[in-house]
Amino acid sequence: MRTLRKILWPFAVPYDGVTRVRNYLFDKQIFESRSYDFPVIGIGNLSVGGTGKTPMTEYVLNLLRNKYTLATLSRGYGRTTSGYRDVTSDSKAVEVGDEPLQFAMKFPEVHVAVCERRLAGIEQLRLKKPKPEVIILDDVFQHRKVKPGFLIMLTAFNDLFYEDLVLPAGNLRESRAGAERAHAIIVTKCPADLSLETQKSIAEKIGAYAEAKVFFSTIAYGELHDDTQMIDWSQVTNQKISVVTGIAKPQPFLTYLTTKGVHYEHIAYGDHHNFSEKELAALDQKECIITTEKDYMRLKGKLKKAQLYYLPIAFQFLKDAEVFNESILEFVES
User: Is the dihedral of CA 147, 148, 154, 160 positive or negative?
Assistant: First the structure.
């Protein structure tokens, strides 16, 4: 598929040119990029989706939640509303986006908001009581009007940015050179047994584009849950299971379910898909549905008959977690 897309390179050239000029104008301060006198941490990537920004954001929230008053700001991708909105556990995913709703449900003490204009969103958040001491921006790498004090860039192990091309020939939102803006680069979704030799090789290749320290992480899957409790796998393996995904790259999720001995049909939707009434009615005819935590935010409370379960994931460093944690804490404390 990637080889076939390379024939689109002539169309990628003008896109690449526009993004390079835009970045140049921000770098030379011809276009204004605002920085702040309080800690702002940005999380993002060069590619389109599927790098694990949500578990990374949750990792940073967990790292700081007991020490600081926190806020997180997202665009709220896939929502049907616009402008600034506060997000609470009672919000609807269709109005605020699935990922912000997930943050609000898991971190009730954190100010969670969505706003496509990050500058305006930050201004609104700073009016909150208590005032956020640290703001974490989700999916902000290309939002150059804001200059986070610490910028984390993610790149997936099976889709490394230095092997990719800009849209539409590849999946990059901007050229590989954008990596130089990062303060830390994390290779996500690695095999848990990734060798040190391979890690060194990847880090050296990334080093051709950025001076930031390179970290490696994997996905740690949690236990199966329903609305109220953890579910033992033995309760579902004998049922007729449908796996429903509306994420950019579902294959790691499917592979994990296979390792658990789950036999299933896979029903795939696009990333951040908003389910229609017809689709929900069809899904409600299924016996048992297993989905991702993010998709669960858009399905919960909408199925009357089908049993609905979700599988949470967490971010886990292969090594040097303490080094990463210390770099974040030093930035915030300084």
Answer: positive
- In angstroms, the CA 250 to CA 248 distance is 6
Smallest Cα–Cα separation from 12: which of 171, 168, 218? 168
Q: What does 31-97 look like in DSSP terms, one character per residue? A: S--B--SS-EEEEEESBSS-S-HHHHHHHHHHHHTTTS-EEEEE--TT-S--S-EEE-TTS-HHHH-
Minimal CA–CA distance to 311: which of 276, 248, 268, 262?
A: 262
Question: How many angstroms separate the CA atoms of 98 and 96, rounded?
Answer: 7
| 191 prior amide bond cis, ω within 30 | no
Is the peptide bond preceding residue 168 cis, with omega within 30 degrees of 0?
yes
On whether the CB atoms of residues 325 and 63 are closer than 8 A, the answer is yes
Instruction: Determine the Cα–Cα distance for residues 118 and 69; give it in Å rounded to an integer.
Output: 19
Of 178, 135, 138, 183, the closest CA to residue 27 belongs to 178
Instruction: Give per-10-residue mean pLDDT for the chain (334 aa).
Output: 72 94 96 97 94 96 98 95 97 96 97 97 97 97 97 97 95 97 98 97 98 97 92 89 94 92 94 94 97 95 96 96 98 96
Query: For residues 258 and 231, is the Cβ–Cβ distance under 8 A?
Result: no
Please give the model's pTM, rounded to 2 decimal places: 0.94
Matching residue, tokens 């896979």: 266
Task: Name, in order, each residue with C-beta under 8 angstroms of 87's C-beta and a sequence gap of 6 or more.
Answer: 76, 96, 100, 101, 103, 104, 112, 113, 114
